[in-house]
Amino acid sequence: MSYHIDDQSLGLKWLEERLRNTDLIPSQKPLLDGVSKKMHALAEAGVQSLGDLRTALKTEKSLTSLSRRSAVEADYLQSLRRAVNGFFPKPRAFKDMDWLDEKTVASLDKLGLKNTQQLFEAASSGEAGLDKETGFDRNQLKDFMSISDLCRIQWVSPNFARVLAAAGFKTADAVAHADPETLFHAIARANEGARFYKGKVGLRDVQRLVAAAAYVP
Questions:
Q1: Residues 125, 85, 9, 15: is their CA dihedral positive or negative?
Q2: Residue 115: beta bridge partners?
Q3: DSSP H or E segment with residue 135
Q4: Are 184 and 206 in contact (CB under 8 A)?
Q5: CB-neighbour burial class of residue 123 (10 A; exposed 0-12, middle 13-18, buried 19+)
Q6: pTM more than 0.90
Q7: Is 185 exposed, middle or buried (0-12, 13-18, 19+ CB in 10 A)?
Q8: Where are the alpha helices (DSSP H) in the chain?
């Protein structure tokens, strides 16, 4: 199973629908202004898939070129780039997870498993007998797998993945099918006493989280 959505199989219509169906943060709301017309213009400029768009927006030079060809404003494309990049959460390095000891990180590293994407894809493919190769017990390995899976959700950090798992939502699929209010209260209970993080996650944030999880493959 892929860590991210397949950007080559998804078109601009998919992107438009995702933008329309997402509770966008205030800075991204202008993306809906004339969105159908802009998506049509991008298609006319040769952008057929989400993958094509990511490539065209990768550098300032290519973005400027696309803006000229499509007549879509560069400011709009820059905002669109930030939104689209959010659909592809960066793999999280195990060495940066401060609750893991050096021995654990070294054991994963020895197998070429340096981040959440590598562990998730190795386990999904069944190519590595991870429970035997790493020397971890099954429950410990399941915890690592859970963190790796949950980090595929937009906005979810490894630390917040731990909260979700502690709240009983151990996979991206479980979050996608959660009742937002139920999940909201479960997160609050799991984090009582600032066990994982300080501050507060609001119900609207959780609603966005559930919606984002629905797009995880």
A1: positive
A2: 93
A3: none
A4: yes
A5: buried
A6: yes
A7: middle
A8: 12-21, 35-44, 50-56, 60-70, 74-85, 102-110, 116-125, 130-134, 138-150, 158-166, 172-176, 180-190, 203-213
pLDDT per position in the chain (217 positions), as tens? 899 999 999 999 999 999 999 999 999 999 999 999 999 999 999 999 999 999 999 999 999 999 999 999 999 999 999 999 999 999 999 999 999 989 889 988 988 999 999 999 988 876 456 666 666 777 888 899 999 999 999 999 999 999 999 999 999 999 999 999 999 999 999 999 878 988 889 999 999 999 999 999 9
The residue among 143, 139, 141, 140 whose CA lies nearest residue 164 is: 143
Length of the chain equals 217
